[in-house]
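Hi R.,

Quick one: here's the Pupal cuticle protein Edg-78E sequence you asked about.
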Amino acid sequence: MKLAIFVCLVAAAAAAPQDYYQQQPEIRLLSYRFNSDDKGNYEYGYEQDNGQRVEEVGKSIPGYEPETGSISKVGSFEFVSPEGQQFRVDYTSGEEGFLPSGAHLPVAPAQLPEYQAHQQQFPELY
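And here's the predicted structure, written out as tokens:
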């Protein structure tokens, strides 16, 4: 049994691409910043030479009880696809959830009038 496991491990190692890290181009960090305060607020960002860029600002929102609260975030990230097209996503994140927007992202359809009427008629269900 041990021999079978050993043979499988050797076969898996031999089948793995040996030049994986040689195929990947080296990506350099052009800029980086991170600032925070003692209240939990922060901002950070970085840019790489492959076109990737990230910016984010987080604001700590204290809760009504000690050790509770939430963080509200606003930010964006940019990247270049393998086809060479540049994409940018702007977002907010907080109590409403993660809300991304970008020219390449689909837009949610408008609410159906029947659903909205039902929501107004039976608010306890929502």
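The chain has three helices and six strands.

Cheers,
M.
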